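worker-03 picked up job from queue 'complexes'. Input manifest follows; two sequence lines, order preserved.
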Amino acid sequence: MNTLRRVLMASACALLVIGTARAATGTFDLAQLTQLLASKRSGEATFVEKREVSVLDRTVMTSGRLSFEAPDTFVRENLKPQRERVAVVGNMVTMSRGDRTRSVALDTVPEASVIIEAIRGTLTGNRESLQKLFETNVSGNAERWALELVPRDARLRAQVATVRVSGQKAEVREMLVVLPDGDRSTMTIEPVLARAASPAAAGSGAAR
Amino acid sequence: MARALVVWLLALLAAAFVTARSHYVADLSAFLPSAPSAEQAVLLDQLRSGVAARLVLIGIEGSTPAQRSAASLEWGRVLRKSGLFESVNNGDNSQYESLGTFLFEHRYLLSPAVDAQRFSVDGLRSAIDETVSLLGSPAGAMIKPVLLRDPTGETVRMAESMLPASAPRTEGGVWVSRSAERAVLLATTRADGSDLDGQQHALEQLRDGFAPYAAQGLKLVVSGAGTFAVASRAQIKHEVERLAIAGSAAIVLLMWLAFGSLRALAIAVLPVGTGVLAGIATVSLAFGQVHGITLGFGTTLIGEAVDYAIYYLIQAHAPLVAGAERGSGARRWIVRNWPTVRLGLWTSLCGFIALIFSGFPGLAQLGVFSVAGLIAAALTTRFVLPVLAPDGAPGLGLRRQLGAATGRAASFAPRLRWPLWLLALAALGLLLWLPSPWRGDLASLSPISSDALKLDAQLRGDVGATEGGTLVALSASDEAGVLALAEQAGARLDRLVTEGALQGYDTPVRLLPSPATQAARRSALPDAPELRGRVAQAAVDGPIKAERLEPFIADVQAARSQPTLTRASLQGTPLATAVDAMLVPGRDGKPWRVLLSLQTGERGIPADRLRTALSGVPGAQVVQISTELGALYSRYLREAMWQAGLGALAVCVLLGLYLRSWRRLLGVVEPIAAAVLVVLAALALHGAALGILHLVGFLLVVAIGSNYALFFDQLRHAQGSVSGSDDSNESDDSDTLASLALANLTIVISFALLALSSIPALYAIGQVVAPGTLLCLLLSAAFVRGTPRSAV
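worker-03 finished. Artifact:
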C-alpha cells in the first residue's frame, strides 16, 4: 500500500515538474489544452449563434443551451427562433424538431461528425478524437487560448474550411465555423455556473 | 418369357424418353408447402424473388484504406454498368444524382410535409425559418443552391424520411466496416434468388471482375444467400459424384467377388437402372417436374433394388443336381422366394405410399419416386431376370464361402439373443429418459461452414443489413388500394418508431405515395397569385426577401398540374428498382402486395405488439421469417413423422394379414423395431439433432430390414414344414443366407460412404441406414425363433 502510494506520488511530482517546465518555456500545446479541458467532466452553458450566409438577406441569430458530459455526451438545444434539439451520445445522434425525431449513427455522416467532434471533442478534452479528424494548432496560454481545427480529409475540407475554438482556462467561450464558400457562424458561449447541486460539478469546481 | 423382355424394353424406352424430357428444378420449393397459409405465401415470395435472397455482400480487404476506397469507387461504377445487378451501393452518392433530380422535381407530390397548413402564412414562415436554420452549417450545403426554389425545405423533409435507420460507416467517400479493415459494398442481383444459374453467373462475373484489384494486392470477400446456395449446390454435386463413384466401385468389386462373373454383374444392375428410370418418369408425369432433392434421396432406393437382383441371382442358382433342366432355378425361385420378396416389396411400399399424401412436394415426390422405382425394380427382377439368367448367377465366386460363413454366424447369432434384447430394452429406456432428439431445423440441413456464416454475419453488420427478419405484408386488388393500405400501416408504425419500439421501416409510399395522397398534396398547393400574397406576408422581417422567391412560386404553380405518379410511370426512372423491391404487382389473379420490412434493432419487437398496432389495417400480416421458416420445418417434420407412423402401422397390418400368425408377425417386427430403437438411442446419446432426413433414413431401414426379417421367417417356416434335412434344402438355405449377407454388405458399404460425407443431408441418411440395416440383419438372425438348423 505504502509503496503504491509512493510510486503514485512520485509520478505525480514528475508530471508536475514536466508541466512546469513546459509552462516555463512558454509552449502551450494540444496535450496541455486537452488535459485542461478534460479536467471538467461535465458542464452547461447558454449560447448565442450568429450566422452570416451569402444567400440570406440578413444575419440569422439563434440562441439556446449546450451541455456535455464526459466521455461522449453532448446536447445542443435551440430555443430561439425555433425549438430544436440535437443530442449526441457515443456514435448516435438524435435530432428532434417539433414532433419529429430521427436517429443516425454519427459515423455514417462524416460531414456532420466534423462539426460535432469539433465541439464535443473540445468540450470533453478528447485529444485523440481531435487529432484523428483535424490538423490542430494551439495558440495562447492556459489563461486564454485558441484552437484552430482544419479537417484532414480533403472531402471534409470541402464541407468545412476551419473551426476556431477559443476559451479561458477550462471553459470554451467561442466557436467560429468557416465554410468553404465563406459562410460563417460564430457561437458565443456563456457557462452556467449554478450547478452546485450536482456532486460532479462540485468536484470539478473544487479542482479549479 | 420373351414377351416379358419386349414389354420391359418398351417400358424402358418410354421411361427413358420421359426422363430425357423432364424438367429438373433445384430451388427451395420442395421444402415449401404446396398449400401455404397467407404468411407462408409471403415467405415463399420472399425466398424466391425477395430482395433478401438477391443480396450480395462484398468486402474489399488488404492494402491501405485509400486504395480500398479508390477500388470501391471505381469497381462500384464498373459493376453498375455490368447490367447483372439491379443496384450496387458502396456509399458513393454520385450515383444518386439522377435520383435526386427526380425527387426534387416531384417534391410537392412526395414530401410528407405538404398540406394546406404548410402553405398558410404561418406555415410558410416557420418552414422558411426551419430551412434557414440549416444554412451556415455543412447540412446546409445541399439546400443552399436550391433555397430560392425550395425555401420550405421539402427536399430536406424527403431526405429525412428516406434516411435509413442503420447505415454503414462512411470514410473516404465509401462504406467501410466498423470492425475490420475493409471497404464494403452491397449489391442486388437481377437474377431471382431461386435462379441458381443466374446467381452463379453473376457471382462468377463478380469474382472475375475483381482480378485487376487483386493484382494490386486487394482481397475480395463475398457472402449472401445466393453465394451460399451456389456454393452448396456445387458442393453437393461434387460430393454426390465422388460418393457415387466410390460406392459403385465398392459394390462392383463386391459383386464380382461374389459372382465371379461380369455378366452377373451387368444383370444385377438392371433392376436398379429400371427402377431409377421408372421413378423419374413417373414423378415427371405426375408433377410436371423433378426436383433435384428427390433425385438425390430417391436414388438411395438403389439399396433395396440391388437387393432384389442379389436375392434372385443367388437364390435362383440351379441346384447342383445332375440333369437339372435349364430354367428350373428361376421356376423354383418364383415359387419359393418370390412371395417373400413380394411381401418385402409391399411392406416397403406401405412406408413410401404414406409420403405421397404429404403436403410438401419434396416428400410427395420422394414417395412417388420410391413407389414407382421399387415396383419397376421388383417387376424387372420377377419377369426379366428369369429370361436373362434362367438359373441365377452362372459363376460361383466366393459365394460358397460367404454362405458358409453367414451360416456359421447365423447359427451363433441366437446366442446373442438375450444380450441384444437387453440392448434394445436399454435403448428404449434411454429414449424415454433423454430429451427428444427430433429437434433438427432447417439450418441443420445447410452445408454452410461456420466460417462462412461468421463472415456473413460480419459483412451484414458492416452494411447494416442484419434485419430483414420481420415483414408486414399488405394486399389489395389494385395499386391504389395497396398503397393506401401501406400509408395506413405506416402511420401506425410511425407511432412505434416514436415510442422507440421500432428503429424504422422501409415502405414504398415514401417514393410512391397513393394516388389519393398525391391528389391531396396537389390540392393543398395555392395558385401563383394567392401564394405570392402569402409569401409577401410570411417574409416580412424574414431572412429572405419575398421578391426573391419567385422561382418557388413558379415551381409550386407547375406542380399543381403535375400528373400523378404510378408504378408504371416510374419505370425507367431511378426510383423503379427501389419501389419494385417493396411493391409486387398483382398478376394471374394474385393481388397487389406491399412488403414493409422492419428494422427492429437488436432487441427485436414481439409479433403480438405489431399485430395489435396494425389491428385496424385490413389484412395486414406480420411475418417473422425465421419463426415462420422454423414453424414450416416443424410442420414438415411433424407431418412426415405422422405419415411414417401410419406407414409403419400399415406394414404391420399387411404382415399380419399375410403371415396369419401373431407369433410370426412378432418375429418379423421385433428385429426391425429393435434395430430402429438402438440406432435412435445411439444417435440421441450422441447428441444428434434429428430431422426429416433421418426419418427418411429410418423409413429405408424398415423397408430393407423387413426383407431380412421375412427371409429369416421363411427359413424358419420352411424348417418347420419340411421335416428332416435334404441336401437341396440345405444348399437353398445357405444361398438365402449368402444373398442376405451380400445384400447387406452392399447397403452398409454404400451408406457408410454417405455417412462420411460432409454434407448434412447425405451424412444424416448414411448415419441411420448403414448401422440400421446391419443391425436389422443381425437382430433378425438373433431373434429367429425355434431351433436353429445347425443345432439339430
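worker-03 released lock.
The longest strand of chain A covers residues 42-52.
Residues 17 and 29 of chain A are 16 Å apart (CA to CA).
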